[in-house]
Specification:
By secondary structure, the chain is mostly helical. The chain has helices at about 5-10, 25-30, 35-50, 55-70. About 70% of the residues lie in helices and about 0% in strands. The longest helix is centred in the last third of the chain and has 17 residues, at about 55-70. The protein is flat. One of its GO terms (cellular component) is mitochondrial intermembrane space.
């Protein structure tokens, strides 16, 4: 391997990604059991850029959170 090949090989290597601590928000949502509903809501908003177009996802998340609150967990 010549010098330019070595330089290219070094440039093409990706840096190791350190494991990040779980985001505090995600941890809280996962604890409620409503992570799937929250993800669907966030994806809808990302895709549409309009919360008003995500009413079914918002309702599902709200219902899930209300169930969690009623359970008193």
């Amino acid at each position: 391997m010549n010098n330019s090949e070595k330089e290219t090989a070094v440039e093409n290597r990706s840096l190791p990604v350190e494991d990040e601590d779980e985001d505090e928000w995600d941890a809280r949502i996962k604890k409620t059991g409503c992570y799937k509903e929250n993800e669907a809501l966030l994806i809808c908003h990302f895709d549409t850029h309009d919360w008003r177009k995500c009413t079914s996802e918002m309702k599902a998340f709200k219902d899930c959170m209300n169930s969690y609150k009623k359970a008193g967990i």
